[in-house]
Amino acid sequence: MSRSVRLTMAQALVRYLTALRVDTPDGSVPLFGGVWAIFGHGNVAGVGEALYRYREQLPTYRAHNEQAMAHAAIGYAKAHMRRRMMACTTSIGPGATNLVTAAALAHVNRLPVLLLPGDIFVSRSPDPVLQQVEDFHDGGVSANDCLRPVSRYFDRIVHPGQLLTALPRAIQVLTDPALCGPVTLALPQDVQTMAFDYPEAFFAAQSVVFRAPPPDTVELARAASTLREARRPLIVAGGGVLYGLATPALRAFAESHGIPIAETQAGKGALAWDHPLQQGAIGVTGSNAANALADRADVVLAVGTRLQDFMTGSHSLFTEAKLVSLNVNAFDALKWRGVELIGDAGLGLEALSQVLGGWRSDETWEREAKTGAADWRAAVERITARRDVKLPYEGDVIGAIQRSARDSATSDIVVCAAGTLPAELHKLWRTATPGGYHVEYGYSCMGYEIAGGLGVKMAHPDREVVVIVGDGSYLMLNSEIATSVMLGHKLIIVVLDNHGYGCINRLQQACGGEPFNNLFADCVQAGQDAPFIDFAAHAAAMGALSENVKTIAELEAALKRARAAARTSVVCIETDPDRTTTEGGWWWEVAVPEVSEREAVNKARTQYVAAKRKQVP
User: Fold this and answer.
1) In sequence order, which residues have a C-beta less than 8 Å from that of residue 601 and are 6 or more positions away?
2) Are 121 and 158 in contact (CB under 8 A)?
C-alpha cells in the first residue's frame, strides 16, 4: 500500500514545486528559482505559512508591486531561455488583477510564469469576502477570471485533491516548447488551508525534460524543395532560435548554404553582430541591409518567429518571396500560408541542411549580402560615435553605453521595452552573446524595464545588467529599484528624459495629428509650466546611487562610476524628443482617419492608402 502524507493544499503545492529540478551544463538545479510574494488576507495564512515552512528549499522574495514582481519573474525565465522560472502569489483583489498585464506580456511572448493568486471562499461562508468581485449572474466568477484569456492554462483549485492533476498539467504547459506561457492556479483561501492525504510519491524529486520535437519527413522534403528553387533566400531568426538553444545550428546552416540572416526583436543575438552574414534587425525597426534583402528575397526561411507586424512591415515586406516557417508551434508555422516545417529550431535546421546537401544561394546574392552587412556595421559605428551635441538622442546614448564597457558585446545584458528605445536598440545595439539583448517588444509593455531587469540580474548575477528606460516608463513602474537595493542585485539604470511620451508624439504627428497630450508641454496643466521631475533624487530616495548628467561625456563618466559601484545606480540624461535614427526602418500600418477637417490628416490618409497597396492580402 502506498504511503501518504497529510498536508494542506498550500503546503502540498509548495512542496511539489521544490521537488522539480532541471539538468544544466553546471549540474542539476531547481526548476523554480523562487517565489515572489505580496501577502494579503487571501494568501498570507495559507500560502504564506507554506512558503515559510519550505523557505530554505524555495526562497520567497518580497516585492513592491504585483505587476512588477511578475515582470521580474518573466525576465528571469527569459534570461534562462525558458529553462528556469519563478512563481508569484498575491491576495484576492487588486493584487490578483495587477497580474493581468504581466500575464498578457508572458502570453504574447510565450514565456513561463506560474501565477498563484488567492481567491474567494469556496464555502461562501463569509460571502462576500473583502475584495470580492461579485457577478450578479454567476456565483462562481471571481476577479481571477480576468486572468483566463491571458493564461495558457487556468485552473481554480476547489478541493485539495485537485492538485494531483492540476500541478502536472501546469508544469507541462510551462515547460512545453509550443504551449509555453503563463499558468494561473487560482487558490481559494479556505481551500489553501484544507488538509488532504497526498501520496508521498507525488513529491518525489524529478528532473523536468524539455522536449525538442524533430520535423516531419514529408514537411522536411517540401521545405527543402522550396529552398532549392531559391536564388535569393533570407533567414529571419526569431526568439525560437534562442529558446531552442539553436544558435550554433543557425550559424552552421547559414554558413553551409550561404544564406544571410536578419533578426527579429526576440531573435536578436542569435548570430554575433559582426558575422559577415549578419544583416541586423529586420522590419519596421530594421536595418538598411536586412530590409533591402527582404524586399528582394525569393524565399524567406522564418525560424522560430510568430511573424509579428513589426517584423513583416505589416505584411508589406518580402511580398515577392515564398515563406518557409520552421516553428515548434503549428499556430505560428501556419501563418500567412507559409510552407510549414513544424519542429524544434535546432533539429529542424540540422535536418534541413542534410536534405539540402551542397546547395547554396546564388554567389552574387551572398556577396551582396556581405557587402550590405559591412556597410550597415559602418553606419552603426558612425551613428553611435561620440559627438558634441546640445541635446543628445537615443543613438548617442546607446553609443556611450557600449563604449563604457571594455567589451559590452559579450559582457553586458541590455534590458528595455516600449517606446522609441527598442527601435533604436534593435538597429544599433551590438551583441555577440545569445541573451545579451533582452528587449520585451511583443507586448511593448511600458514599466517592464526595471522589474524585468531585476529578474535578469537574478538569473545572471555575474553579468552587468544595463536597463535603458524612458521617463514615461520610469514613472509608470519604478518601485523595484527599492527591491534591487534590498536584495543586493545591482542594476545600472539609464533614464532618458524627453519630458513625456516622445515616441507617440512623433507617431501622432506622422498621422497628421497636432502635438497633443503626449509631451508635458502639450498636456492640460493647472499652472503655466510643465512639471520638472528629478529622477535622480527620486531614485536616491529608494536607496540607489544616482546622478543627473547633461552631456555624452558626462554620461560616460557617470557610467564608469556606475560600473564600479556595488549597488544599483541610476543615471538620468535629458534627450531630444524629436530626433530618431533615419537610417533603416520600414512602413508600419497605423490606421489614419478616412475623413477629417484637417489637411494634415487628409494628406497622411492619402499616404496611408498608397502604402497599403503593397500589403499582401
Assistant:
1) 511, 512, 513, 592, 593
2) no
Model-wide pTM > 0.90: yes
In this structure, what C-alpha cell is assigned to residue 240?
Answer: 525560437
CA distance 182 to 441: 17
Is the pLDDT score of 169 beyond 70?
yes
Number of domains the chain is built from:
3
Q: Kindly list the distances between the CA atom of residue 423 and the CA atoms of 310, 391, 572, in Å, as whole numbers in the listed order.
A: 10, 19, 20
For 316, 592, 606, 608, the CA distances from 612, given in Å and listed in that order, are 8, 11, 10, 6
Specify the pLDDT at position 407: 72
Residue type, 579: R
Residues 12 and 160 in one domain: yes
pLDDT value at residue 329: 96
Residue 39 lies in a domain: yes
**CA 264 → CA 173, 311, 452, distances in Å?**
25, 6, 19
Task: Say yes or no: 497 and 560 in one domain.
Answer: yes
First to last CA, the chain: 63
Contact 507, 514 (CB under 8 A): no
280 and 407 together in one domain: no
Q: How many CA atoms lie within 13 A of 18 on its CB side?
A: 18
Sequence-distant (≥ 6) Cβ neighbours of residue 108 within 8 angstroms: 442, 443
Q: Which domain holds residue 95?
A: 4-207
pLDDT (0 to 100) of residue 409: 64
Are 223 and 361 in the same domain? yes
Query: Can you give the CATH number for the domain in which 307 is found?
Result: 3.40.50.1220
Q: What residues contact residue 152 under an 8 Å CB cut-off, 6+ apart?
A: 107, 173, 179, 180, 181, 182, 183
* Residue 410 CB burial class (10 angstroms; 0-12, 13-18, ≥19): middle
Q: Are residues 435 and 362 in the same domain?
A: no
Q: What is the pLDDT of residues 38-81, one digit of tens each?
A: 999 999 999 999 999 999 999 999 999 999 999 999 999 999 99
For residue 95, give the C-alpha cell: 493584487
Same domain, 515 and 371: no
CATH of the domain at 200: 3.40.50.970
Alpha-carbon 490 to chain mean position: 20
